[in-house]
Amino acid sequence: MDDSQIIDLYFRRDEAAISHTAAKYGVFCHNLARNILSVDADAEECVNDTYLQAWNSIPPTRPDKFGAWLGRVVRNLAINLWNKNHCKKRYSGMELLLNELEECIPSPGTVEHAIEEKELTGIINVWLASLPKNDRVLFMRRYWNGEAVNALAAECGMTQGRLAKRMYRLRQNLKATLEQAGYL
Amino acid sequence: MREAEVKKLYDSITNIKDEFVEEAQASKRKGCVSAGKPILWQKKHPAWTKWCALAASLCLVIGMGSLMLMNLHHAGTSGGSYNSGGFDNGFWGSGDLALLDAHREDFMPGLSAEAEAAFEGVPGVMEIYRTLNNEWFLANDLTDFSQILTAEPLYIVPAKDGAYSVYTLDENGISLGMGSSLPNNISVSVPYALSGLTYDIIEEDLAGINYDDYIIAQSTRLYTVFIWARCADGEDMIVTYPARPEFVGFENRGCYTLKEIQRILTKVYRDSGSHFQLTRNWLMIPEKLYFALLFICMVISIASVSALICGAAKKKTLTYYIIWGIILLISIVYLILTLGTHSIIAHTMVGG
């Protein structure tokens, strides 16, 4: 069943919409949450909350790209859960991602003004568009999906070290872009 | 503060364009292993690279095969196979020495009085005359070797193990002319060109000929020494000592009339396309090593071509192509040096 048909089910308030969503995107949502939270039970909780949010949001929302929209919902829920439990538990997946992304933050004293999150998203969009496709996909799968480096390395047929180097260069590239934009 | 910025950055990433998210998910679906091999980030080679690699490999195989067939063909003729050099000076001598107008009596056998005095006490000195640069053997009115030889003799002093030294003689006395050859491992009982040539061997080879006298002539271009035995009643006979008999068509210590010499050289000359140059710049290696390397390089070149063809079909990495390309190049260079230019030869290929 394609995405538009599933969304139509939501609009008809047909509960089959949930089952079809789970069938098509369940694994994707679970993996996304698992990559951030590292705990299956919490990831499962996030996924269930995602279906609930989808049910509550559609309608009136009609996402253009249903998969990406769902992924964003899962991601936000997983981050919120992480924030909530950050002091109580350590989620290794999210920790590692944040540690790596910390390298992208320009040094203090080199910026001119604070940038809103929306503007920052725009900068990152432009930066991603300038990357070759392989690098862009790599970045997305690492920092949006939260996939582990060793899994990505195995899939693209390179050693973990080599992939880590490539990711490092991407982060430095992003850092340079943010510095140019005056990010704080 | 920094932690907050990191979180802000992370949250910003959450809201990037949907198409980037979809692109990543699509690549993840495509990037699943196929037949046990990851395919996500493999570069797709355009189809034409595969066909170009195949065409290049076929050209190499055909080229090498043609070269080998040519060599076999020439080896089967009396002229043998040889290097083509396009040498504009012709292939007899240096080309700038005077032609004597006088007849054969001006080329006397043995040593002149001056030479005898100069080389007194030195055993086995030979006086030789070098040939001119014209294609003398093509002439129809050839009557004597004044039409062939240069005026200035050289003096060969034999040494041990086939080595020799070359001298000139002028009003200032003896000068070391063309230098010396190095001793070699070839038995001196089988002379080639000047190496190992002595009066004893010459007279042994002339034993069956009723001659009056003889002179010694040398063609540097052909690396061949001719013992021209002059016969008062009957034809002059010429005994040949070629360094590369398979090139010039003469046997080592072979005996020919002048007409036969002309016929053989004319054929060789024509087969070479009028550009005939022997070079002495060859590398001699043991015979077994020569043929072993030849066989190995042939096998390696065929294997390299096959590997390149398979690589083109299976879309291998650039490193794969480079490595096999280098291996193919090295093996082909060796094959060219041995079969093509004969720059590498087995030591048994020199001499009789």
Feature tags:
heterodimer; A: 184 residues; Rna Polymerase Sigma Factor, Chain: A; 2 domains; B: 352 residues
Descriptive overview:
The complex is a heterodimer of chains A (184) and B (352). Chain A is mainly α. Chain A folds into two domains: 3-89, Rna Polymerase Sigma Factor, Chain: A (Orthogonal Bundle); 103-181, Arc Repressor Mutant, subunit A (Orthogonal Bundle), CATH 1.10.10.10. Helix content of chain A is 73%, strand content 0%. Chain A contains nine helices and no strands. In chain A, helix 1 (3-11) crosses helix 2 (16-37). The longest helix of chain A is centred in the N-terminal third of the chain and has 22 residues, at 16-37. Chain A is globular, with a radius of gyration of 18 Å. The N and C termini of chain A lie far apart (44 Å). The radius of gyration of chain B is 33 Å and the shape is elongated. Chain B has two domains: 47-74 and 283-349, no CATH class; 84-271, no CATH class. In chain B, strand 3 (164-170) and strand 4 form a beta hairpin. The longest helix of chain B has 30 residues, at 47-76. Chain B is an alpha+beta fold and 352 residues long. In chain B, the strands form two sheets. Chain B has an eight-stranded mixed sheet. Chain B has a two-stranded parallel sheet with strand order 9-10. Chain A binds chain B through residues 28, 64-65, 67-69, 71-72, 75-76, 79, 97-98, 101-102, 104-105, 117-118, 120-121, 124-125, 128, 133-134, 136-137, 140-141, 143-145, 154-158, 184, and chain B through 2-3, 5-25, 27-28, 31-33, 37-38, 40-42.
